[in-house]
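U., I forgot to send this yesterday:
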Amino acid sequence: MKTPRHFGWSVDGRVATVTLNRPERKNPLTFEAYRELTDTFRALNDESEVRAVVITGAGGNFSSGGDVHEIIGPLVQMKNEQRDAELLEFTQLTGDLVKAMRACPQPIVAAIDGVCVGAGAIIAMASDLRLGTARSKVAFLFVKVGLSGADMGACAILPRIIGQGRASELLFLGRSMSGEEAERWGFYNRLVQPEKLLDEATVLAQTIASGPTAAHAVTKRALHEEWDMGVDDAIDYEARVQAECMRTNDFERAYRAFVKKEKPEFRGD
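Result:
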C-alpha cells in the first residue's frame, strides 16, 4: 500500500493508525488530504493484514475541518462558468471519504481530543467507535458559514448515533458539544484522560483486531446496510450473512477451542 503524504500512517501488528498531522493549524484538511484519505480507506479493502484502524489528530486536537485558506477561500472565489460543476465535484469528493470509511471492512476507532469540528466532526461521526476527552469540542459548523447541515451524510448518520432531535439541534445551531455531553448523548463510547487517549484507542482496536476478522466485516456491513431495511428484511439478511460466517474456519476454530476450554485464535479466514 502506498505511503500517504498528507497525513501520518503507521501499522503496528494488525492495527493501522491514521494521524491528521498539521498541528500548527489544528489539523485542517486540504483537497489533497481528502483524496488521499479516500484512496487509503478504499485500499484497505485489499489489506488483509490490517484488521482495525485508529484515526486521531496530532498536537492535542482532532481536526479543525476543511482548511479555510486552501479550501473555503478558493471555493468562494470561483467565478468562472464551470463553478457549479466544480462545487459539485468538491462536495462529492468529501462525500466519497465517508463512503470509503463506511465501506472498508476494518472497524475504525476515532480518538478525539481538543477541536473536532466541521469535516473533522464528520470523520469522527463516520468512524465505527469513538473515544473522546472531557476537554474536546465537537461541532458541525456548516451553518456558521452559511451552509446546510446536509454535508457528507450528516443528516443520515448523526441522527442514528445521537437521535433526531439532538442531531437537529447541532446541525441547525452549529454549536459545540462538550466531551461530557458527547458521551451522555452517545456520540462517544466513553471518555478517556487526554494522556491515555491514543493508548486506549489502540488497545480497543487491538482487541477488535484479535477477533474474527471476516465476522467483524459482516457486522460492519450489516450495521450500514440495514439502515433502510424493514425488520423482517433485516432478519432475513442477517440469516444469510450469518450462514456465511458459519462456513469460515474461524467458526470451527472457536468451537474446537471452546471444547478444549482454550482461547480461540482467529486468523481471519
